[in-house]
Amino acid sequence: xxxxxxxxxxxxxxxxxxxxxxxxxxxxxxxxxxxxxxxxxxxxxxxxxxxxxxxxxxxxxxxxxxxxxxxxxxxxxxxxxxxxxxxxxxxxxxxxxxxxxxxxxxxxxxxxxxxxxxxxxxxxxxxxxxxxxxxxxxxxxxxxxxxxxxxxxxxxxxxxxxxxxxxxxxxxxxxxxxxxxxxxxxxxxxxxxxxxxxxxxxxxxxxxxxxxxxxxxxxxxxxxxxxxxxxxxxxxxxxxxxxxxxxxxxxxxxxxxxxxx
Length: 261
Ligand code: MG
What we know:
Residues 64-258 form the Fumarylacetoacetase-like C-terminal domain. The protein is mainly β. It is built from 6 helices and 20 strands. The strands form 3 sheets. Strands 1, 2, 3, 4, 5, 6, 7, 8, 11, 12, 14 and 17 form a 12-stranded mixed beta sheet that branches. Strands 9-20-19-15-16 form a 5-stranded mixed beta sheet, with no helix packed on it. Strands 13-10-18 form a 3-stranded antiparallel beta sheet. The chain is globular.
């Protein structure tokens, strides 16, 4: 199932608060009561056309976005680093999360802001020390993320909190797919229609079970937490006034505008 979070637009019957729904194959959304990550997928009888709603980030993590660095060999090489022997992790604040078609704001203090297409894991339950063979039990689904990065500040600071942590630097969406199984699907990023990153999920150095096992050996994950699984080679600058699209075969495409601060 594809789970969307949205505001209904001018449909007064449904109010204006964000709602969750299941995207049906006929282009309609069946509304879910409550938050599916916390209370399960409970469909109601109400439906609305997808074209009439405004999609939002499918989840706003209540605690954290955990990210994996250098998880594709060709990207580690383009950053001048070696392939790590265990996952490198860092955090983005949950306040960086935005949704489909929202605007990435280029901060004044940076002269170089890059795209990074990544598969994102959405955690479905509180978990710690998850064995690799139990990892699928704690995953609610998958979505697409753009790990937007102020590359000059990342390099200048020697650690990544500022370069990765600005508001709007974590677009996710357009939905959570609860049936997606990562394999050799194509992963791409395009700036104004020009493909800049192209790889396959199977190019990852550390796979999903290894990542979740490693992260939960360090910290407890909560429902709604997200793990970004790293980006392939081809990272490069966004363009103010332009659009960036990140896509994963079988999952969809997430597009955002870019504007100056
Ligand atoms: Mg990244």
